[in-house]
């Protein structure tokens, strides 16, 4: 009988989309307070795994427990305790940023005063200064990402899922977000983050899961991986060697 008190437990989780096996028998257990970096090439199955872990997608087989709760059996209880920053910008386009955060805060049963106070802090800290009354659909890509991060944090989650949080974020805000994440970790919040920015992953995460074609290739702390896969120098070195290196980068007509 496995211990259900882990922050996240995936037990032989698979997801099939028609002919595509997006995630294949993924098993991993993440202790509370850890910061997991989920790495893999485009199409490796990171977003699909995160979507199954957060209850957005139902696995074809296998089980997911979040903070001891089965995600499929307790979707609402799980959603109350986690924060999710999705990869796509599926925000409500016809709302302003404040209206959107009021909506999200309301779902988490925060009172209006708390929501407005936290919203102002989010806008200020993340430099999200949209003109008053501007609709989310007119936001730049990075502005939508910042708002999505704010929405994931507004209720103070115990477990945070971030799907490519640094994609399209300016270098100044990137430093701010790194600081926010470092401070959340020091307060015991568990974080799962997919990212292609290996230097940030190396700097922030204490454990890594590297997936390829839906399968787990390597899992453990950075030092575990160094022991198991030899001295690879940078994380990029390990990643490239696990993926079999990069293509030559020549196009015949150029
Ligand atoms: N809704 C869907 N219907 C059909 N196939 C899907 C669906 N969602 C994902 N896939 C497929 O599953 C595989 C994994 O996709 P996924 O989005 O999880 O990759 P990823 O690791 O997040 O990639 P990226 O780094 O580009 O974000 C891909 O082959 C993708 O085409
Ligand atoms: Mg993805």
General description of the model:
The chain has 9 helices and 10 strands. It is of the alpha/beta class and 254 residues long. It has a single domain, classed as Rossmann fold (3-Layer(aba) Sandwich), CATH 3.40.50. The strands form 2 sheets. It has a 6-stranded mixed beta sheet, sandwiched between helices. Strands 2-1-4-5 form a 4-stranded antiparallel beta sheet, with helices on one face. Helix 3 packs across helix 4. The chain binds adenosine-5'-triphosphate and magnesium ion. Adenosine-5'-triphosphate (ATP) binds next to strand 2 and helix 1.
**N/C terminus separation:** 59 Å
Taken as a percent bin, the fraction of beta residues is: 15-25%
Mean pLDDT: 93
CATH structural class: Alpha Beta
Could you state the order of secondary-structure elements as H and E?
A: EEEHEEHEHHHEHEHEEHH
- CATH evolutionary superfamily: P-loop containing nucleotide triphosphate hydrolases
Provide the low-confidence segments as ranges. Answer: none
What is the tally of beta strands?
10
Q: How many structural domains does the protein architecture include? A: 1
Give the second-level CATH assignment, the architecture.
3-Layer(aba) Sandwich
Indicate the percent of residues in helices: 25-40%
Tally of individual helices: 9
Question: Spatial order of the strands in the main sheet?
Answer: 6-7-8-3-9-10
Secondary-structure-derived class? alpha/beta
Give me the CATH fold name. Rossmann fold
Radius of gyration: 19 Å
Principal-axis shape: globular
